[in-house]
Design goal:
Length: about 425
């Protein structure tokens, strides 16, 4: 009979092999990454272009362009695009990120051939109707006004601005007046400059056959090569020194805390061990910050620490929402936990618990072909080595308490943190 009081045995993960993509270099500069997997009759196509916030000629243009990309082409109205996508039971949307814009199509594999001309039409022939652009501007501003009533939004906004600088794309604050002054022509200009398919990294995965690949290569190759050097942004303003800031919010009873610092890039030799360290600090439900600030002190329902890797900068962020009267006490406890990691080696039992959690979560994130391709895509876009995820497993399995303490001493000094708090005005 199974004894449920005894945990099941565990064993090392060993070697982890992610799917290998068939990478096809197109003469005009685009690259197609094909990862076939026939478990389900579904495909996902993602066209990733250098059209994120990093490439904004004016603040907000990349957001406006991405969100109105599906609002019509020379031959299709927005309604016709939506109806065609719905007819085939598909999903099509465009997202703007800090570095890239991504057009994503999900559909049954048997419908991909019929939908590819629509995807190409949207990417190449979008017209950005004036009326739709004006409606999008109004909706966006209204949404931002609602968000700016929340302490969590204001603290995150101020934290990013202070960490990266107000002129840096990662730290630039949404400017309502400047956004409303944008026109449909601004979107058209950025679209012509950054949505050229010769710059695309294209990821096709799922039940893919040769006919899909052939058709996609024809569509991608139809765009002429462009000079990418003139489009590449130069480095932005220097980062500001660590500082403390407070955003007063009338009528608020809670305070939102955001603390963090610039962090080593994912290419750093200790990047996986640093991920382990931050998991111990605040990266899972049993972390030190959760045990202290949630379970012991009762200051919050949740607190989390994480590392955000982007193409041009990485950072650590610690965030929580607390009762306003406990804000400073919560910050002191965060500092205490960071110092403990610097001064004391992590006990063996805790080390093994976190190790098991990280490896289990990693395996859980490889459950579908789409999740596997997400990891592959991250590696491609961040310029990481082919063995990056294999090294992740090896580093997590081998890291010691002494190594983590040394890393904490190098990277978790409380006086290096940029801090932003949004809450009720001080009396």
């Amino acid at each position: 009979m199974l004894n449920r009081q005894i945990a099941p045995p565990t064993r090392p993960i060993g070697r982890v092999d992610l799917p290998t993509a068939n990478v096809i270099q197109i003469p005009n500069g685009a690259r197609l990454h094909v990862l076939a997997h026939n478990a389900q009759p579904v495909v996902r196509l993602q066209v990733v272009l250098p059209a994120g916030r990093w490439f904004d000629p004016s603040p907000g243009v990349s957001l406006l362009t991405a969100r109105t990309l599906l609002d019509g082409t020379h031959t299709r109205t927005a309604r016709q695009i939506a109806d065609e996508v719905a007819f085939y039971g598909a999903s099509l949307e465009c997202d703007q990120g800090f570095d890239r814009a991504t057009l994503t199509l999900y559909c049954l594999s048997r419908h991909l051939e019929k939908l590819l001309p629509l995807v190409h039409d949207v990417l190449v022939n979008a017209i950005f109707p004036d009326k739709d652009v004006e409606l999008l501007k109004t909706r966006t501003v209204q949404n931002i006004r609602v968000e700016r009533q929340k302490t969590s939004y204001l603290a995150s906004e101020r934290f990013s601005r202070n960490l990266f600088g107000s002129a840096h794309p990662y730290g630039r604050v949404f400017n309502e007046e400047a956004f409303l002054a944008l026109s449909a022509n601004d979107a058209r200009i950025l679209h012509r400059k950054t949505y050229n398919l010769s710059k695309a990294e294209v990821f096709l995965c799922g039940e893919v056959d040769d006919s899909h690949t052939k058709l996609l290569l024809e569509l991608l190759g139809s765009s002429a090569a462009v000079n990418t050097e003139q489009d590449q942004q130069t480095e932005h303003a220097e980062l500001t020194a660590a500082q403390e800031d407070y955003v007063p919010v009338e009528g608020s009873l809670q305070a939102s805390l955001r603390l963090g610092r610039v962090w080593p890039a994912p290419t750093h030799a200790d990047t996986h061990k640093l991920q382990f360290l931050i998991k111990v600090l605040g990266g899972y439900f049993g972390s030190r910050l959760m045990k202290n600030i949630r379970e012991d002190k009762g200051f919050t329902y949740g607190i989390h620490a994480s590392i955000s890797h982007r193409e041009h900068r990485s950072n650590l962020i610690i965030g929580s929402d607390v009762n306003a009267e406990n804000a400073q006490a919560a910050i002191r406890e965060i500092h205490i936990e960071m110092r403990k990691l610097q001064e004391e080696a992590i006990p063996g039992e805790e080390l093994e618990t976190v190790r098991s959690y990280i490896l289990g979560k990693f395996l859980n994130e490889l459950g579908t072909i789409f999740e596997q391709v997400d990891k592959y895509k991250t590696r491609v876009l961040l310029g990481l080595p082919a063995d990056f995820h294999g090294r992740f497993v090896a580093d997590v399995e081998a890291v010691t308490a002494a190594e983590l303490q040394e890393l904490a001493q190098a990277y978790l000094a409380p006086d290096t943190l940029t801090q932003a708090v949004a809450g009720p005005p001080h009396n």
